[in-house]
Amino acid sequence: MRKRRIRLLLALAAPIVLDARAALPETAKPAEKPEAIDVVELIPQEPPKWSPTNLFAPITGFFHGGPSYWYGERSVEIETTPPGAVLDLFYVRGNFQKRYEQADAPVRVMLPSRIEASDRDNLTVRALLDGYRQQELQIPVRSQTDRVMIDLSPLPNSLLAFTQTTFAGRGSLSFLTKEAVTFRLQKSKDGFDVVLTETSNTPTADATMQGVANSLIAGLKPQQLGEDLMIRVRLTDLGRSDDFETRSRQGFDPVRGVHVFNLDLAPRQGDDAARQSALRALGRIRTADVTGCALDFDEALREELDPAELARALTPNGSHTDPYLRAAMKRLGELSPDGVIRMRDGGRFRGSVPIELMAAATQPNEALGYLALLRRFVAEMETEPYRESTLRGLIAPELTPDRFDALLRQAQEREQSCERGGSGGTSAG
């Protein structure tokens, strides 16, 4: 009878207990278990040699919190900031490596118990993350360290921007970096690799290297290899020929406060033939190419380009394109009405007067019709499908190919709209 009463009372109390549990607030519910991390076992197959420590471990263990210090499970949890670094894990006894594993942070490394390790056993950790300095540390297996946070330092140098220009049979790759760069060149099967040591890539520079293709360069592929940035340069058949050689030069841009490393693909026989070809090409450009509806194209493209970037691209800066740009400005003066180069701000310069021509050349980004003339100049000098890439290298090397393609199409549509409407184009007067 007593047992039946107890079972009855328990049956009546069960719903009350369940209701009480359901009524608990959220904070009273059991906390969720932390997300599991990878576990790597790094335990040598053979134990160390016997030592007096094994004899006195039962006694000395009391000074370290109990027997578990010597005989308990041993592990070290390793994290990095930023997370996701590749960890090389070495178990070293004396000067000999006993085990090696590789893992991604964070990770928990299982080690032998302290009694199964000697005082010369160490866990060596090497952390590697693209764009950061390599870090290495040692953790004695017998220590009480069970958690390590490795703070990775950014590399001292970074590639801030990249531009490329190919014109008149010569190419140039320009790398703008935070600090002066140390580099090396390596030949490859289809071109060469440029290795910038202790330099990290940036999204801006990476974007402008995508889709690059011209008469000399078939493509670029940046790749961060730990502390070094490698740019794989794939050349065309012309670029790989013996007619070209690579030349490097470094400088400093005081306006932007950046270092400039230039790598040129130069013809071994010099530029005389290219210059003669350029003069003939300029002679084939006519007034209609820089007036009328061509000015609508010129103005539409100029409105969308960043004025500072356009000025940097067109202003002489020691590049191999400088003499061609100066010759183009002179030709603009010859083709403009009354021989006068007109500027967006209303200024006028006579192309036949050397000092005025020089003044116009110092602000080419303001000269009306200059972009339209360069478009025609490129069309006379380059063959398809590289004309658009060449034009981008001359007037907007800091833009990505896709962005420049969109701006170019908009400017062409505005020119075509002018031609259909017969409006005669933007006034140059």
Features:
single chain; 429 residues; 3 domains; 13 helices; 30% strand; elongated; disordered N terminus
Explain what the structure shows.
The chain is an alpha+beta fold and 429 residues long. It has three domains: 38-151, no CATH class; 157-267, Immunoglobulin-like (Sandwich), CATH 2.60.40.3500; 272-421, no CATH class. The protein contains 13 helices and 19 strands. The protein has helices at 2-22, 52-60, 68-71, 203-209, 237-240, 272-283, 294-304, 307-314, 322-335, 354-361, 370-381, 387-395, 401-421, and strands at residues 38-41, 74-81, 86-93, 96-104, 107-111, 121-128, 135-140, 147-151, 157-167, 170-177, 183-188, 191-196, 199-200, 217-225, 228-235, 244-253, 258-267, 340-342, 348-350. The strands form five sheets. A five-stranded mixed sheet has the order 13-9-10-17-16. It has a four-stranded mixed sheet with strand order 1-5-2-8, with no helix packed on it. A four-stranded antiparallel sheet has the order 4-3-6-7, with no helix packed on it. A hairpin with a 5-residue loop joins β18 and β19 (348-350). α7 (294-304) runs antiparallel to α13, α9 (322-335) crosses α11 and α11 packs across α12. The longest helix is centred in the first third of the chain and has 21 residues, at 2-22. It is elongated, with a radius of gyration of 35 Å. The chain starts with a helix and ends in an 8-residue tail after the last helix. Mean pLDDT is 85; it is low at 1-34.
Task: Write a compact overview of the structure shown.
This protein is an alpha+beta fold.
Class computed from helices, strands and strand pairing = alpha+beta
Helix content percent band? 25-40%
Count up the helices.
Answer: 13
The general outline is elongated
Low-confidence stretches: 1-34
The strand count comes to 19
Relative strand content? 25-35%
Q: Specify the biggest β-sheet.
A: 5 strands, mixed
Q: Work out the radius of gyration.
A: 35 Å
Distance between the termini: 116 Å
Question: Number of domains in the coordinates?
Answer: 3
Strand arrangement across the biggest beta sheet: 13-9-10-17-16
Mean pLDDT: 85
